Task: inverse folding
């Protein structure tokens, strides 16, 4: 049995209440969502927050809905609900594909999209998805609400732009008619973090890539995306050669580290390979294949 | 013969269980499936305190000072013990099971990351853990030996400078076989193939970690130790020797054990510390390690760097095999082996084949890694042996451009060669290897698989078929040759039949999930005709069971299973005398049928074993020399090991773009002699096959240049899940052991021993078109892809 250090606990009943609690409890308090990253770190005593503010009973943070031309996902929506969301699946199958390879059912039953975004693990699958889709973070703090593009939300590994008294309340994704999307991941074992991943959307019009987004997790891609690869692909014919050229850029421009998941050359290769595979499938879906 | 056939039907008991061998639900499942097991950590004694171990963050560092004052001042802390405290008691060092010494708590320096440095005893586990952070240890880091291949370099730091006169990291050299004869065979061979083959460090990772509750009763002076041990009796004796405690005042209790796989054979510092803690505080003290402590400090397995060479004629007749081993034993030689065999039974590496010459040399070294070295269902290093021979035979097949099945069939031992003495001195008891291999090939559809493979290759798809044929020697062992710390490896067994005909059988071996409470009841049922539900198996308590060496090396059925059969036969013989008295006839006039002695020629006149049990305890006048009651005891000293074997075939698909391996099929045909409970045997095989897939593809403890353990949590030490396991396809052949009372050979480790080579051979077969002949475990996607590129990673050190 692993034993965390002493910690205080408070349950928030609304976002405003959570912000109030965070203000009261000070800099060493942390919000807790599904707890599947923070609690293990506490048990290993890699993290020792003085207090936890529990966000699990805040109804306004739950659920997937359409608002105008965006899909809005409450920050406390659980992985399982994202996996099963008909709205997300209709517009972006990438979500279901990614969720199928995120951890295991036990984690997915409690872990949340907002918790994943705020944990900012370099290998977080949904962060690659969010960056690929050029989503937006909706953040609430003592001074009100602000929106930050997901491609600016992360300050580096395990760091975000959130202030200590701010709470991530939702993630928004623009709906793109005609877009195809796909997620590819290689892990050492089911449920493990990715060695490399690729999540993409592609809009093909008249045989040409009109728009695309390319996300990569676990390989040190800044903000989990590859703008260079996107630039290389947008405006090009939707062909194997174009996809391969873009995927090559993704592999070249990411910045992986060697670890027990693999050496750098492999991770670069894998980034290219998985980006290529995802682009092929997403483009085919966009073209109605 | 494409499926497991049930053993011939035997009479069923009123409860529907076989009175003898056959399938029945495990008796212990009732409590396990309801969550009502009773493990060490479930124990709560009045006044019990909790211990926690401070561990070294460094792999090699001198300890300048340890300041425990802040920890001692924390409310709820009862005592803090350091190496200095223990040194005062003469307990700072303890013997290992290999006649080395190991620090209980470090005094001079730490020698691996995770080594025990201090022990806090407090009112709760939380307080004890909090107090660890208040202990201030001043370390001077030292250069680290993280690479076994550099351990004997002239400039390597000397790890064991505690040993007087020690100037290097060498532990021992050990050899087996005939070197000259082997070299001569190599010189005369048409073909010689050599490969460097690593069996990397892995960990048994039982679901339950190690722990103990020690209670030294200050009034009676009796020590009771509830502990996670696979060998309670051996542990009792070692505690007596280590701590100078009188052995009659030590009771070791091993309650339900949540998996062992060899991890719970050694004695760990934590166990000793809980005893010291109880002596110091006068209260019961519980110590239970967490997952990372288990992975980082307790008995690992393997870590064998093997250079194997095989010699053959050009048409594939094997002539000789030799293996040079560099064995990484970590900071203390804590490997648990029969004394005569420091490398365990590794010299069984000649495998299942017929050739005249073999030789191995094992050079063991210290490194700054956790001690241990034999664990994880390895049958005393037979896992390494089976892997190296099956891998090098495949390398030879590749060299000869010969089908690996054909090469094996050409060289397998023939039934008429048994008993067969191997070039390294083992006497294999029985076998019909070709039959077993043919069954496996038929189940797999081997020819069709090869056709499919050829078609797929033509399309650029890479499937692989891997074969492993293994022979184990289990059931250690003949006491003349086999002992651990001077304790001969024979097992006692007691059987009492109560007046109502219900029985208790007392065993020295200790189940960790193998189903002993069922299997041993079935053995007695088979011999006496008492229903298995009427037979209680008593084990895991040294005050209430006979002496024996415990459960590991697949020895429970071969040794204690034999003892159980023989003790039941002894009771049956006694029952005959009592029945004769009751029936007023001569014992020779009686014949036995299951559960009953009856008069020859008059089957209606007889006494059931239950009636005889009452007679034995009643007023019946017994013949001279026949004592009352119906019980017996035996000590079984095995005349030889038993030699289970099997043929495994694995089919994989490899994605060369990503290096990912999918195990599509796995066919396992085991011959372990008669199966006492086929369901339990299949469960054991399933578990071992999952182990094998895990070791082949993902399990690994590697170390970086600072000696950091890179497999210290389940985030880093990957165990396979059901997602990685195909539906196992099991088959059997039955070749009884001629010297075992019921012919049983033991099966607990067969699948772990046999399966890794099948998986690796399949993966290498799949990527052989890229010119790959070998790559080391674990075959992670990165490693497979690198192998395809011609630069496989070195898996025992950090990936760079």
Result:
């Amino acid at each position: 049995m692993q034993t965390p250090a002493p910690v205080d606990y408070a349950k928030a009943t609304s976002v405003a209440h959570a912000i109030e609690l965070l203000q009261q409890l000070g800099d060493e308090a942390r919000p807790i969502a599904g707890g599947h990253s923070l609690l293990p770190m506490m048990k290993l005593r890699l993290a020792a927050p003085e207090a936890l503010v529990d966000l699990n009973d805040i109804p306004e943070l739950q659920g997937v809905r359409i608002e105008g031309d965006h899909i809005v996902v409450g920050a406390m929506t659980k992985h399982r609900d994202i996996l099963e969301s008909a709205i997300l699946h209709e517009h972006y199958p990438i979500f279901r594909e990614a969720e199928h390879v995120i951890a295991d059912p036990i984690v997915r039953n409690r872990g949340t999209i907002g918790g994943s975004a705020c944990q900012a693990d370099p290998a977080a699958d949904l962060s690659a998805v969010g960056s690929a889709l050029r989503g937006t973070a909706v953040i609430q703090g003592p001074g009100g609400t602000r929106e930050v593009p997901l491609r600016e939300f992360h300050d580096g590994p395990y760091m975000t732009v959130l202030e200590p008294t701010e709470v991530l309340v939702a993630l928004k994704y623009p709906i793109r008619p005609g877009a195809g999307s796909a997620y590819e991941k290689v892990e050492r074992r089911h449920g493990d973090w990715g060695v490399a991943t690729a999540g993409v959307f592609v809009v093909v019009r008249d045989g040409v890539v009109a728009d695309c987004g390319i996300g990569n997790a676990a390989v040190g891609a800044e903000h989990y995306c590859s703008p260079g690869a996107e630039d290389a692909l947008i405006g090009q014919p939707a062909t194997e050669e174009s996809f391969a050229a873009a995927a090559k850029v993704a592999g070249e421009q990411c910045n992986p580290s060697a670890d027990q998941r693999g050496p750098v050359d492999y991770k670069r290769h894998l980034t290219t390979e998985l980006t290529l595979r995802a682009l092929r499938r997403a483009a085919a879906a966009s073209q109605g294949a | 013969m494409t499926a497991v056939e049930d053993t011939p039907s035997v009479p069923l008991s009123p409860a529907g269980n076989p009175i003898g061998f056959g399938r029945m639900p495990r008796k212990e499942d009732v409590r396990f499936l309801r969550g009502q097991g009773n493990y060490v950590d479930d124990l709560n004694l009045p006044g019990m305190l909790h211990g926690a171990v401070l561990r070294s963050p460094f792999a090699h560092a001198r300890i300048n000072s340890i300041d425990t004052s802040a920890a001692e001042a924390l409310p709820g802390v009862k005592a803090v013990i350091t190496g200095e405290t223990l040194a005062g008691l003469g307990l700072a060092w303890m013997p290992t099971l290999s006649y080395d010494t190991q620090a209980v708590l470090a005094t001079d320096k730490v020698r691996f990351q995770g080594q025990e440095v201090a022990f806090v005893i407090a009112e709760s586990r939380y307080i004890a853990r909090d107090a660890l952070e208040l202990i201030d240890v001043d370390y001077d880091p030292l250069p680290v030996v993280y690479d076994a291949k550099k351990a004997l370099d002239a400039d390597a730091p000397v790890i064991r400078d505690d040993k007087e006169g020690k100037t290097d990291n060498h532990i021992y050299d050990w050899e087996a076989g005939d070197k000259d004869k082997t070299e001569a065979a190599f010189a005369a061979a048409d073909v010689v193939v050599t490969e460097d083959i690593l069996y990397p460090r892995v960990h048994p990772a039982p679901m339950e970690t190690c722990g103990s509750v020690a209670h030294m009763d200050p009034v009676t002076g009796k020590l009771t130790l509830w502990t996670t041990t696979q060998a309670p009796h051996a542990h009792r004796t070692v505690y007596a020797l280590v701590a100078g405690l009188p052995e009659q005042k030590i009771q070791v209790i091993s309650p339900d054990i949540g998996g062992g796989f060899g991890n719970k054979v050694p004695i760990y510092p934590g166990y000793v510390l809980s005893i010291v803690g109880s002596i110091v505080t006068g209260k019961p003290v519980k110590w239970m390690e967490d997952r990372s402590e288990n992975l980082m400090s307790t008995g690992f397995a393997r870590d064998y760097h093997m250079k194997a060479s095989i010699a053959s004629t050009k048409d594939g007749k094997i002539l000789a095999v030799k293996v040079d081993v560099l064995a990484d034993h970590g900071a203390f030689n804590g490997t648990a082996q029969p004394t005569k065999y420091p490398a365990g039974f590794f010299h069984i590496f000649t495998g299942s084949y017929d050739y005249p010459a073999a030789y191995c040399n094992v050079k063991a070294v210290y490194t700054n890694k956790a001690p241990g070295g034999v664990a994880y269902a390895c049958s005393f290093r037979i896992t390494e042996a089976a892997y190296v021979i099956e891998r090098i035979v495949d390398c030879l097949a590749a060299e000869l451009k010969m089908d690996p099945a054909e090469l094996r069939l050409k060289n397998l031992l023939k039934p008429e060669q048994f008993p067969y003495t191997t070039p390294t001195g083992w006497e294999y008891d029985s076998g019909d290897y070709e039959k077993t291999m043919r069954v496996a090939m038929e189940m797999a559809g081997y020819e069709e698989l090869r056709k499919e493979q050829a078609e797929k290759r033509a399309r650029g798809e890479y499937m692989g078929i891997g074969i492993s044929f293994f022979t184990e020697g289990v059931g250690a062992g003949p006491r003349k040759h086999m002992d651990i710390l001077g304790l001969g490896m024979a097992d006692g067994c007691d059987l009492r039949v109560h007046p109502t005909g219900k029985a208790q059988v007392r065993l020295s071996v200790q189940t960790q999930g193998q189903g002993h409470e069922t299997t041993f009841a079935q053995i007695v049922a088979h011999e006496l005709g008492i229903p298995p539900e009427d037979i209680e198996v008593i084990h895991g308590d040294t005050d209430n069971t006979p002496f024996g060496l415990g459960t590991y090396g697949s020895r429970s059925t071969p040794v204690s299973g034999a003892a159980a059969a023989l003790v039941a036969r002894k009771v049956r013989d006694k029952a005959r005398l009592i029945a004769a008295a009751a029936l007023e006839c001569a014992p020779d006039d009686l014949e036995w049928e299951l559960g009953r002695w009856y008069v020859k020629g008059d089957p209606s006149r007889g006494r059931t074993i239950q009636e005889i049990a009452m007679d034995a305890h009643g007023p019946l006048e017994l013949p001279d020399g026949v004592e009352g009651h119906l019980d017996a005891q035996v000590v079984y000293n095995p005349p030889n090991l038993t030699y289970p074997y099997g043929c495994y075939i694995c089919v994989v698909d490899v994605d060369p773009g990503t290096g990912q391996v999918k195990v599509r099929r796995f066919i396992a045909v085991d011959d372990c002699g008669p199966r006492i409970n086929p369901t339990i045997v299949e469960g054991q095989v399933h578990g071992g096959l999952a182990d094998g897939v895990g070791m082949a593809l993902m399990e690994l403890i590697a170390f970086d240049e600072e000696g950091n353990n890179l497999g210290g949590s389940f985030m880093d030490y990957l165990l396979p899940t059901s997602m990685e396991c195909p539906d196992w396809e099991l088959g059997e052949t039955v070749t009884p052991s001629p010297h075992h009372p019921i012919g049983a050979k033991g099966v607990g480790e067969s699948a772990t021993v046999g399966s890794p080579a099948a998986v690796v051979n399949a993966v290498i077969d799949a990527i052989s078109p890229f010119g790959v002949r070998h790559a080391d475990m674990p075959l992670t996607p990165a490693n497979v892809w690198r192998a395809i590129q011609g630069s496989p990673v070195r898996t025992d050190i950090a990936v760079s």
Summary: The longest strand of chain A covers residues 194-205. The mean pLDDT of chain A is 97.
